[in-house]
Write a structure and sequence with these properties.
Blueprint: H1 2-19, H2 36-42, H3 45-76, H4 83-91, H5 98-109, H6 115-121, H7 138-163, H8 167-175, H9 180-191, H10 193-208, H11 212-217, H12 229-239, H13 243-274
Helix pairs in contact: 1-13, 2-13, 3-7, 3-10, 4-7, 5-7, 7-10, 10-13, 12-13
Length: 275
C-alpha cells in the first residue's frame, strides 16, 4: 500500500513538476528550458484571468458555504421534527456530480426556460435575470450552483461537531442566563475549531480543482469571464498539445493546494504537539 502511494501519487507529482521545466509538446521529452514555461504562464492574460476568477469565486464560496452550512446546522440542532428527512434533503445535492449540478442550474438560470421565463409569464415582463450570459455577474451564477451542492455537506460536518458539544455546557449557559446566540458565538464556535479548519481545507481544495461545474454551465464564457485554472490546464494539455505549459499550470495548482494543506497540518498536528 505504501509502495503504491509512493509510486502513483508522489512519483506522478514529481514527474509532473519535472516536465514542467521542459519544452514538451505533444509528447513529454527531457528538453529543459528552465523557468520559460512559468514565465509564459504568468504573462498569459488567460491564466491571470483564471486566477482572478478563482479568487473571487473562492472567497465568496468559502464564506457563504461555511456560514450558511453552520446556520443550517444550528437550526437542525434544535431537535426539530423530521430531522433525518431534512438532513437527507439538504445532503442530496452533494450526491450529484458537478456536471449534473451545472446542467440543472444552467436550465434554471436560462432566460428562455428558467427563473426569468417563469417570472415574466406571471406578469412581470420587465424582469431580467440572466447571470450566465452577463460577464459581470457570471461568477455569481456559478456560485449559486456551487452553494446549492456544497452547503448540505458542510451542514452535516457542522452538525456532527455541534452534537459533540457536552450538554453540560448548554446547561451552564442557561443557568448563567447567557443568551443562546452568545453561547454559540463565544463558547461553541471556539470549541468547534478543528471542525471549522477541516471544513475549510475540504472546501478550499474543492474550489482550487473547480472544473466540471464551469464546463457544464458556461464552458468558461462569456469570453473568458468564467475561466478557471483547471480549464487552462486542460486546454493546453489536450487541445493545444503543449504538455510543458499544462504541467506548469498543474504545478501552480499543486502549490495552491499545498498552501492550504500545510497550515492545516501544522494546526492539527504541530500545534497539538507543541501544546
Amino acid at each position: 500500500m505504501v509502495a503504491t502511494t509512493l509510486v502513483v501519487f508522489v512519483g506522478g507529482t514529481l514527474w509532473t513538476v519535472l516536465y514542467s521545466f521542459t519544452s514538451s509538446k505533444l509528447l513529454p521529452k527531457l528538453s529543459f528550458v528552465g523557468f520559460d514555461q512559468y514565465e509564459r504562464l504568468w504573462s498569459s492574460s488567460r491564466w491571470l484571468t483564471s486566477i482572478q476568477n478563482l479568487m473571487i469565486y473562492g472567497v465568496l464560496a468559502l464564506v457563504f458555504t461555511i456560514a450558511v452550512g453552520f446556520l443550517l446546522a444550528v437550526l437542525m440542532d434544535q431537535k426539530i421534527r423530521f430531522e433525518d428527512t431534512f438532513r437527507t434533503i439538504m445532503l442530496y445535492p452533494f450526491a450529484l456530480s458537478f456536471i449534473v449540478t451545472g446542467l440543472v442550474w444552467q436550465w434554471i438560470l436560462n432566460p428562455e426556460l428558467g427563473i426569468q421565463h417563469i417570472v415574466r409569464s406571471m406578469g412581470w415582463e420587465s424582469f431580467a435575470f440572466d447571470p450566465l450570459n452577463n460577464p459581470d455577474v457570471v461568477l455569481y451564477g456559478l456560485l449559486i450552483a456551487g452553494l446549492w451542492q456544497g452547503t448540505g455537506f458542510v451542514m452535516c460536518l457542522m452538525l456532527a461537531g455541534l452534537r459533540g458539544i457536552d450538554e453540560d455546557i448548554w446547561k451552564a449557559a442557561r443557568v448563567d442566563g447567557i443568551p443562546r446566540w452568545k453561547t454559540y458565538l463565544f463558547v461553541v464556535i471556539p470549541m468547534m475549531r478543528p471542525v471549522f479548519i477541516t471544513t475549510l481545507v475540504i472546501v478550499a481544495s474543492g474550489i482550487i480543482k473547480l472544473y466540471d461545474l464551469v464546463v457544464a454551465q458556461t464552458s468558461g464564457g462569456p469570453g473568458t469571464a468564467s475561466q478557471v485554472p483547471a480549464m487552462y490546464v486542460y486546454a493546453y494539455m489536450f487541445q493545444a498539445q503543449n504538455l510543458g505549459q499544462g504541467f506548469a499550470a498543474s504545478t501552480m495548482m499543486l502549490l495552491s493546494v499545498l498552501i492550504v494543506l500545510i497550515p492545516w497540518a501544522y494546526l492539527e498536528f504541530g500545534g497539538k504537539k507543541h501544546g
